[in-house]
Every structure is written in structure tokens, then in C-alpha cells.
């Protein structure tokens, strides 16, 4: 295994990307950047860390394979040291494993898993590390997270085998790298979840805004077709008293009832449809995922300069989908651009 890497890999420059939380990154950087400086000097690898205003950060390690393995060893042992230190202050008796998350182009994950899972099984058995490949791609990218956990030695052996697979099976087609989004103030609420509008994206936000929460809970359960009210901040949503809402829904508790699905239609000019679909459908899939609504785009009809979009879901889902569609257009007007139904 190692001879194979030594023969074919030492002159090859590889780039491995890791996904880390802020606390993990802080451990790697160290006081005044001393830890990461030492890792760079001792391993000979280039170690770059993405911007700091995000809950998640990308750590990029680039260099010849032997330099990458040294850098990985130093990171794995540092994380084990952190676990040991945290255990001295806790009542836990079993030591948790060290866990690293690699970010790998989805086109290489098939080779890593192998036919019927044979390759990933072989890696698990020969290294003693646990390896899991995420089923879904990371948001707005064509990459997947590969989680490795175990002892530092098991992780290092596992990374060596993954590097061999990546060298033997280069990525196919263009890779859209995962870029963590910064956290900021939530501005919209839908489907029981507060969302942050960050640029053109809506990101689920952990802070549930009380006022928006109340508005969402009181929103009328029945919205006439084609008359969905957008949940833009500052606009009034149609309200019912909680008792009236319960009677309408026929439920003992308004909180348990979800409004019935309704349908809203938009007409979009052909020259803007690409903004909504995105590269290889990434944008429309993201809007579906974020809003929770079903969105269907009609096929282009000959001689027509417009396309029909049908949005199905709860009023809150539809509102958020409309907001995200409007936000995906270039240079939107102050309150978003809307098109006649």
C-alpha cells in the first residue's frame, strides 16, 4: 500500500480539503497562529484556512503525498490531544474517536465506495477506521463530505488509501467547490424555521424569531389559488385568532395542524429562466430544498418568450420559494421582482 504511494505519489501534488467547525479550526491555528505555522514548517505542506465569519471553515492541504500525510498526522494527533484534555474535565469514561471530514468531488466518490461498497469495506477493514460517504452533496456544490473516525494512526492509514483512490480516479467534469456561507441575521420565517437571506441564498437559522414565529403560526390556513401573500419582512400576513384558526383546521391545537397545500403560478421570461435553474440544475434544486415547495418549470413552447413555473406547497413554502426565485435574478428591485401570474 505504502510502496504504491511512494512509487507513484511522491512527485504528485495533491490537494485535500477538510471541513471543520470553528472550535476545531481554533485548535489547528493555535495562539497567534503558532500551531499552524509549526504544522506548515514540519510537514512541508501548504495549509490554508478559509475566512473566519462562517460556522464552518475549509482547511485546504496541498503538497506532495508524503507532506500531506505528515500534515494529517499532526492534525489527527492535535485533535486527540484536545479530546484527552476535555476528558480530564468530564465524567465520561469512554474516549471518543478522532473525527475528520474530508470534502471530496462527488465524481470520485463512486471509486471510493467501489462496486457494491467493496472498496470502502476494504479500507475500513485494513485501517480500522470508520469511513462514511454522505449521500447528498454539500449545498451549492458538486462535493460530498467523507467522514473518517478512529485512532490517529487508523485515520492516517485511511487518508493514505483515500489518496491512492483519488490519484487513480481523477474527478470527472467540472467540480463546483463547497463554500461555507457566513451566518447573519434571519429575516424570513417559513415552515416553522427561521431563514437567513445571505446574498441569493436562504440558510436555515437556529434562532427562531418570536415575532415571525407568531405570524407564521397565525397565517391563514386557506389561501385562495394565485393569491399567496409573500412573507417579506414588514408586510402583514393575513391573521386569524387562534380559536378561529383551530375551528377552521378542525384540530384541537393549531400548532399541530399544517396548512393544506396550494398552488401558485409564475410566468418568467425565457432569458431569465437560466438564473433560476442554475448550472446543471443546482439553483432550482437549492430553492426546492430551502423552501420545501414543489417547483415545476414547463418546457419552452415554440414562439413563446416566456415559461410557466408552478409552485406547490403551504403558503409559507410558496412565499419562501417566490422570495428565492426573485432573489436569483440579477439586480433585483428593492422589494424583489415579481411577474404576473
Helix content: 25-40%
Give the total of beta strands.
Answer: 12
Assess the beta-strand content as a share of residues. Answer: 15-25%
- Radius of gyration computed on alpha carbons: 25 Å
- Structure class: alpha+beta
Please write the string of helix (H) and strand (E) elements. HEHHEEHEHHEEHEEEHHEHHEEH
Biggest beta sheet summary? 6 strands, antiparallel
SS field, number of helical segments: 12
**Global outline:** elongated
Uncertain stretches of 5 or more adjacent residues: 1-10, 206-257, 332-338
What is the terminal separation in angstroms?
A: 62 Å
Report mean pLDDT, rounded to a whole number: 76
Strand order of the largest sheet: 2-3-1-4-6-5
3D architecture notes:
This protein has 341 residues and is an alpha+beta fold. It is 39% helix and 23% strand. The chain has helices spanning 2-9, 22-29, 34-43, 65-87, 106-113, 118-127, 152-168, 210-218, 242-249, 270-277, 282-291, 315-327; strands spanning 13-21, 46-49, 56-64, 98-105, 130-133, 143-150, 186-190, 193-198, 201-205, 262-269, 294-297, 306-313. Strands 2-3-1-4-6-5 form a six-stranded antiparallel beta sheet. A hairpin with a 2-residue loop joins strand 7 (186-190) and strand 8. Helix 3 runs antiparallel to helix 4 (65-87) and helix 4 packs antiparallel against helix 7 (152-168). The longest helix has 23 residues, at 65-87.
Amino acid at each position: 500500500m505504502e510502496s504504491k504511494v511512494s512509487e507513484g505519489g511522491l512527485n504528485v501534488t495533491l490537494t485535500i480539503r477538510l471541513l471543520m467547525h470553528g472550535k476545531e479550526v481554533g485548535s489547528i491555528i493555535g495562539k497567534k497562529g503558532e500551531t499552524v505555522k509549526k504544522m506548515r514548517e514540519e510537514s512541508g505542506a501548504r495549509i490554508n484556512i478559509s475566512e473566519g465569519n462562517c460556522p464552518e471553515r475549509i482547511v485546504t492541504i496541498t503538497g506532495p503525498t508524503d507532506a500531506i500525510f505528515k500534515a494529517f498526522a499532526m492534525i489527527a494527533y492535535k485533535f486527540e490531544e484536545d479530546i484527552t484534555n476535555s476528558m480530564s474535565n468530564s465524567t465520561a469514561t469512554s474516549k471518543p474517536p478522532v473525527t475528520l471530514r474530508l470534502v471530496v468531488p462527488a465524481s470520485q466518490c463512486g471509486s471510493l465506495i467501489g462496486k457494491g461498497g467493496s472498496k470502502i469495506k476494504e479500507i475500513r477493514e485494513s485501517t480500522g477506521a470508520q469511513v462514511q460517504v454522505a449521500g447528498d452533496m454539500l449545498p451549492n456544490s458538486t462535493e460530498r463530505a467523507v467522514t473518517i473516525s478512529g485512532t490517529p494512526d487508523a485515520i492516517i492509514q485511511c487518508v493514505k488509501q483515500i489518496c491512492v483512490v483519488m490519484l487513480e480516479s481523477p474527478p470527472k467534469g467540472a467540480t463546483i467547490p463547497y463554500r461555507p456561507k457566513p451566518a447573519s441575521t434571519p429575516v424570513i420565517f417559513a415552515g416553522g424555521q427561521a431563514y437567513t437571506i445571505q446574498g441569493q441564498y436562504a440558510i436555515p437559522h437556529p434562532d427562531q424569531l418570536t415575532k415571525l414565529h407568531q405570524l407564521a403560526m397565525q397565517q391563514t390556513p386557506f389561501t385562495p389559488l394565485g393569491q399567496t401573500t409573500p412573507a417579506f419582512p414588514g408586510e402583514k400576513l393575513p391573521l386569524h385568532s387562534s380559536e378561529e384558526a383551530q375551528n377552521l383546521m378542525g384540530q384541537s391545537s393549531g400548532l399541530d395542524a399544517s396548512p393544506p397545500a396550494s398552488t401558485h403560478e409564475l410566468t418568467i421570461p425565457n432569458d431569465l429562466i437560466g438564473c433560476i435553474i442554475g448550472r446543471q440544475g443546482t439553483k432550482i434544486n437549492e430553492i426546492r430544498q430551502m423552501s420545501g415547495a414543489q417547483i415545476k418549470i414547463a418546457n419552452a413552447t415554440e414562439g413563446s418568450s416566456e415559461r410557466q413555473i408552478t409552485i406547490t406547497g403551504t403558503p409559507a413554502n410558496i412565499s419562501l420559494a417566490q422570495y428565492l426565485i426573485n432573489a436569483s435574478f440579477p439586480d433585483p428591485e428593492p422589494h424583489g421582482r415579481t411577474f404576473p401570474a
